[in-house]
Batch of 2 targets.
Target 1
Amino acid sequence: MPTKPPPLILTPPPASSTAPSARSAPVFSGSHKLEARPFELPTALVPNTRLQMDGVAFLSLLPDDAILVAFFDPQYRGVLDKLGYGNEGKTHGRRRFALRQMTDGVIRTFLAGLDRVLIPSGHVFLWVDKFHLCQGVRDWLEGTKLEIVVLVTWDKGIFGMGYRTRRRAEYCLVLQKRPRRAKGVWRAHTPADVVREPAAGKRGHPHAKPVDLQGELMAAVSHEGDYVIDPAAGSFSVLDAAISRARTFLGCDPEG
Ligand SMILES: C[S@@+](CC[C@H](N)C(=O)[O-])C[C@H]1O[C@@H](n2cnc3c(N)ncnc32)[C@H](O)[C@@H]1O
């Protein structure tokens, strides 16, 4: 049974630390050491595979305060329900409409589950579109310890839908479970806050996200071997990103 180095406990460096002086220390220096404690993985959760199951059930199998990094790309209906337009059931919209949709209540349940399984100062990379970015996602986060710490814009390099302007970007809101920290937790000052990576049309999923960007994000906040989870994995782009960065993927989608 695979066990892993999980939860992080932030430990300040000893007084005798050889850390550079405050004047010369880089902003992102690891002035705190992150340590994980192992936990036993339930047999139903097989690492680095495309598990076919419900994401809320998946999260319920994970212990509290156990996971360092999660990705969540909800199958939301906000723009369709609230603006009352879209091309449901037609062309590109047909594939999207065929996927299991998430109400705001379901999304809140996912985020509550992610909040529970995440270690203190762990991160959730939450994908949103322009509609949710502008309307705000505070309702989704209510009652959790998750706070927005940064925003990364993905320039897909291709034009999508839109009546007035054609959408070319999607947004990754970076959430951190309290306590909010950067030093020693966010260990790289790449990526940039706008990243261009061609949309992976060949993945066969209407919402596939960029593998390299996700790999870069997970690498900034985790170490090799750490678990990276995605409870609504779609085309399993996070699985590919995790493998490319020597992380251990755990995730699922009802479509498998
Ligand atoms: C926006 S897509 C994710 C795309 C993914 N990030 C990628 O890069 O391919 C959302 C996914 O959530 C899945 N989904 C919907 N309801 C779910 C549930 N209850 N549990 C897990 N996944 C669910 C859908 O099947 C869909 O594939």
Target 2
Amino acid sequence: MIFMRKALTIAGSDSGGGAGIEADLKTFASFGVHGLVAITSVTAQNTREVRAIYDISPDVVAKQIEAVADDIGVDAAKTGMLSNAEIIKAVAKTVEKYGFPLVVDPVMIAKSGAPLLREDAVEALIEYILPIATLVTPNIPEAEKLSGIEIKCREDAKRAAKIIVKELGAGAVIVKGGHLKGHEAIDVLYYNGKFREYRAPFVKGCTHGTGCSFSAAITANLAKGKSLEEAIGKAKEFITMGIYYGIKIGHGHCPVNQNAWRDIPAEKWRIYEELMILGETLTKLNDAYLLYALPAPYTRSEKDICVLRRGEIKFGAPEELASVLMDRMRKEPDIRSALFVKGDVRFGKSPRDILKSLGII
Ligand SMILES: Nc1ncnc2c1ncn2[C@@H]1O[C@H](COP(=O)(O)OP(=O)(O)OP(=O)(O)O)[C@@H](O)[C@H]1O
Ligand SMILES: [Mg+2]
């Protein structure tokens, strides 16, 4: 048996697996936290559109929260799509009984443009949910709606943040800058009377589910006992990576890849392990370069390719050799390894495969 922290998401389901409950659970898993759910609404959704919304009864939403909190315990929770005022009131009343840290992602509109919160429910969100929030994570349009001011630049975002904390009673707020296009995605935190900016390069990739995954990542890290500022820092790194390695599916806004955060370090370790075992054998092939790349979707440059040469193992293969392997991987994504020896090159799915085919092992 192992010990695990528990994080709860109170949100809607996205049948396309890109946002909502589905994104939250994948994010929790990526941070090694056990995920709990209270589903507020079922949406029939894909990367292009929301086709139907079916709200769960407020009583059943509350019962889901109670069921997990009474038995399993909740180290931190987040809210996503709350859909209507009745669900909002039920969630606020139930969460208040337990007092766990609560991250509120004030979801109002889906990436595809569909409304996910009824117009009349915004007031309820402000009245019941914001005062019990440890942190609120609005994007620019949401921060405008909550604060009542227009946001055109970072100074406006700071003014809105102050209003959300000082006048609406949230514990802290981070206004996300994904909608203010520029070289950097800059989010502004207002916490304990101070501002702090979180910056990352603005990357091309997939953005369906960014808001859900970002707030879920903060929640997972709070559940693990990190401070609010540390939790946001980790979430920022996580979301930038998730967008960059986004999953190319569907015909609309493709989803964030929550697995990249865990997959890449895990794959790196597997590569080191295999090359360490083979290192001995390869000393026989004196001038050989043995290359081993991360799985194809994660191999973007020579930095993602490990090289074994004269017993030394390191990521960052010589550029000319890396480009030969990457060319081959583009045609055959299962290929991940290349052995360069005496002017000859052999490809394989793994170094072990190549060495076996040569009769070396
Ligand atoms: N293209 C991008 N490159 C890097 N970071 C980004 C990009 N787009 C958004 N972000 C970051 O992702 C996080 C989520 O912000 P975003 O503004 O996308 O939320 P959102 O609008 O609520 O998303 P959603 O539409 O999924 O609800 C923030 O940290 C933001 O700065
Ligand atoms: Mg959002």
